[in-house]
Amino acid sequence: MDQAIADSIEFDDARGLSAAAVGERVASGQTNAFTADSSRSAWNIVRSNVFTLFNGIVGACFLVLLLLGRWQDALFGVAALSNAVIGCVQEFRAKAALDRLALLNAPRARVRRDGVDVEIAPSEVVRDDLLVLRAGDQVSADAVVVDSGALQIDESMLTGESDAVDKRPGDEALSGSIVVAGEGTARVVRVGAESYANAFATEAKRFQLVSSELRTSIDRVLRWVGWGVGPIGLLVLNAQMMVAGGWVQAWQQGTWSQAVVNTIASLTAMIPLGLVLMTSIAFAVGAARLAGQKVLVNELPAVEGLARVDVICLDKTGTLTAGEIRFDAALPLAERAGWQQTLGWYGAAPDANATAQCLREPFPAEAPLDASRRIPFSSARKWSAVSFAAGPSGTWVLGAPEMVFGDVAGDAGTELGAAVTRLASSGRRTLVLAHTDAPLDDADVEAERFPAAPVAVAVLTFVEAVRPDAAEALAYFRDQGVGVRVISGDNPRTVAAIAREVGLEVDEGYDARRLPDDDVELGEILEQHTVFGRVTPDQKRRMVTALQARGHVVAMTGDGVNDALAIKTADIGIAMNSGAAATKAVARLVLLDGRFSHLPSVVAEGRQVIANIERVSMLFLTKTVYATGLAVLFGALVMEFPFLPRQLSITDGLTIGIPAFFLALLPNTQRYVPGFLKRSLSFAIPAGIVIAIALTVYTRFALGMGLSVEQLRTGATIILAIVAIWVLTVLSRPVTRVKVLVIGAMFIALTAIFTVPALGDFFQLRDPGEDGAVLITMIVVVAIAAIEAVRFAHRRFVRRLLRADAEGSRR
Questions:
Q1: Which of 8, 83, 512, 596 is least surrounded by CB atoms within 10 angstroms?
Q2: How confident is the model over 148-199, as pLDDT tens digits?
Q3: What angle is formed at CA 723 by the lines to CA 703 and CA 72, rounded to 5 degrees?
């Protein structure tokens, strides 16, 4: 900071910066403006779709053919370019939608300027601004704590330390950390790119690669193919040169160019370029569809993760209920002067949470009270306490009955326990106001404890409206075999009553205070029970981890800051837009309109993506297998490759590329089953081998029958086209009207290519003759029968996998 500015500004820890001071800092560039991607960056999209190993191979082959004057055989280059352009366009469209939604729903920063607390965009924060921090806030810039009221900050996203850190005056509050309890103020010391979080912008970007079986499996296949391209290419080139008369003779006579063309045909056929494209498009379109339903996807592969979820953990408030809490009644238990006035103070407190704010109307604060000492509310301990400088004497404690009075609050034999039990069982949320004669002292505040021997003054009840769509959504999950766990900080009886209201079959909730410390035992309890109450934020995270340890893929929904750690730990974290900024920041998905009913469509979208990509992958991998098989067989047998690159472009485009685009986006409700790559290869490998052997056998017989090179290539193209169309049909089952239209259109296009003279001349297709037609028919019939046998065996194999997986889950 310029010294002149520092000298000209009077710092005031109570009032914050003046408007003039803010203006000077903005003019000097000392703002928190920093561009952080809310989705994939433009360069990331271009790089993943254009600058890849296989695009490099295809580009090199394309240039070689152009240099040889064989532009007709370079059609695959146009197709590869089109794939890259389509992929970029689709992902840019999805990025624009996600960025627009992220901007509209960006978190706000609370600062004090000229003595007034105002909310501004984080980018508008300037150096020396006074941040006003409350539970649920995300620190927007590096700051030094000025004032602390039991302020606790979670820095786990930055430092890896899971425990919340107590912050006292003089301590640093790092940008990106989350206020989990208490309140305070902090003066900004570093902004923009200098702040702690932004200094590691590359690692800290919102778009991260979530666990994706699709992406991992496809990358593995690409690595395998990548390793094979070089040696197989040399094998094929050697065979083609030998067919042309040997390396020396081929070079001298100029026939080497046809050998190179044949080699390029074999290599480009091996590369499953469209598979990467289809996966990217499916992710992008899925995210864009969800954006249209007011669901913000922070990370595109999270769309796939939705399909793998088999347990969803729900926070009651804001998820099953509408989140709108309403004061119901106060049941007095003991006479204490000033209890109503105290409730008015709790309702009017600046950091009052949603529950406390409900007290403002029934208990208006007529005369403001001055708190001499206080312990702010914490999600972990679930109570707050206050002593006043003047007014009601002693210490007043407001919190969950079980956390203030322990087991007494659950004992129906006591007056307090009977009231709490009866009211909680009716679905009402209960709090207790307690009083002790001794006021809080500094030691109490430091240790976060209230004086002993509290007396229950009143039991307060609150009601929450159950979401009208909750029962239908839970029924969907039940029908789909997705387990549901309701996890809440409320009374277990209250949570169980709400759960019964939305259709869950439960008796009583499990009190989380009885949960074991051992994670294995915790996992067993989570398998046996559905509803849990009095759960602390750390327990929520442990519960998610315990379910994951038992092999479950876990989604966690919530809206409060107490849900943030669990949402971050879950495989798929889902936050409500009405929730805390910190919760939305760590979530993979944000329900922008807060409607729980979106979750079934969210899961369905994920299932559609992974089921369709699995089907499409079988197409592309079958092609890779038969192309690799042909290259190896023809290279080892020293036979001329039976295709020109332009002829392979026919089969690639009309039997795989174009149909795959439609298949990848069609509705599909198939449930996810682990083992995507194993299932895909269990069909693709035998089907590809069948096609490779069929074409090799055909070529051998065709050469023996004396067919010309043009006739041989035409026959091979016909065989490959028909058998590939049959593979497409087999993988499209059950065949719907849309699929019939797609397959029919591809068949008509193939027929046109083989019958229209101009197209036949361009693709060098010649009548194979009567003997050639008979041979082609025999090979096609045998190959189709073999493909049907492969599909039959594949279905039985998949069923065995499903049974084994189900038995493993039961064990």
A1: 8
A2: 877 888 776 555 455 567 888 888 888 877 787 778 899 999 887 777 656 5
A3: 65
Q: Would you say 428 and 463 are in contact if contact means Cβ atoms under 8 Å apart?
A: yes
The phi, psi pair for 670, rounded to 5°, reads: -60, 135
How far is 571 from 120, CA to CA, in rounded Å?
A: 32
Q: Report how far apart, in Å, the C-alpha atoms of 143 and of each of 111, 131, 514 are.
A: 12, 8, 39
Peptide bond into 734 cis (omega under 30): yes
Taking a C-beta distance cutoff of 8 angstroms, is the pair 150, 169 a contact?
A: no
Contact assessment for residue 772 and residue 684, using Cβ atoms and an 8 Å cutoff: no
| pLDDT tens-digit map of 322-376 | 767 789 899 999 989 999 999 999 988 877 777 888 898 899 877 778 889 988 8
The Cα–Cα gap between 209 and 302 comes to 8
Do residues 671 and 753 make contact, with C-beta atoms less than 8 angstroms apart? no
pLDDT confidence of 9, banded at 50, 70, 90? Answer: very low
Rounded Cα distance, 298 and 470, in Å: 24
Return the DSSP state at 392.
S
Q: Which amino acid is at 594?
A: G
Q: How far, in Å, CA of 584 to CA of 591, rounded?
A: 9
Q: Which positions are annotated as active-site residues?
A: 315
Q: How many other β-carbons are positioned within 10 Å of the β-carbon of residue 289?
A: 20
Give the pairing of strands 395-399 and 383-388: antiparallel
How many CB atoms within 10 Å of residue 253? 10
Burial (CB count within 10 angstroms: exposed 0-12, middle 13-18, buried 19+), residue 413 = exposed
- 435-467 burial: b if 16+ Cβ within 10 Å, else e: bbeebbeeebbeebebbeebbbbbbbbbbbebb
pLDDT band at 641 (very low <50, low <70, confident <90, very high): confident
User: Letter for the amino acid at 301?
Assistant: P
Structure tokens at 525: 């309890």
**Helix H or strand E encompassing 395:** strand 395-399
- Structure token pair of residue 149: 């009221």
Contact between 201 and 158 under an 8 Å Cβ cutoff? The reply is no
